[in-house]
Write a structure and sequence with these properties.
With 52 residues, the chain is mainly alpha-helical. The protein has 2 helices and 2 strands; from the N terminus they run E-E-H-H. The chain is elongated, with a radius of gyration of 17 Å.
Length: 52
């Protein structure tokens, strides 16, 4: 299916996998910032997220 190659301590991954991993990291960072800052989403944003 998906083949990963390791070369001199580095691995080669597909662009899709790289972008997926970066998105997950950003989501975690955003969640932590929101939780640490005590920010709450307005009801309008919560509803808008349902349609995205």
């Amino acid at each position: 299916m998906h083949e990963e190659k390791k070369t001199a301590g580095q691995e080669t991954i597909s662009m899709e996998e790289y972008l997926w991993k970066r998105q997950k990291i950003r989501e975690r960072e955003d969640w932590r910032r929101g939780a640490a800052g005590g920010e709450e989403k307005s009801p309008a944003w919560m509803v808008a997220e349902l349609y995205v």
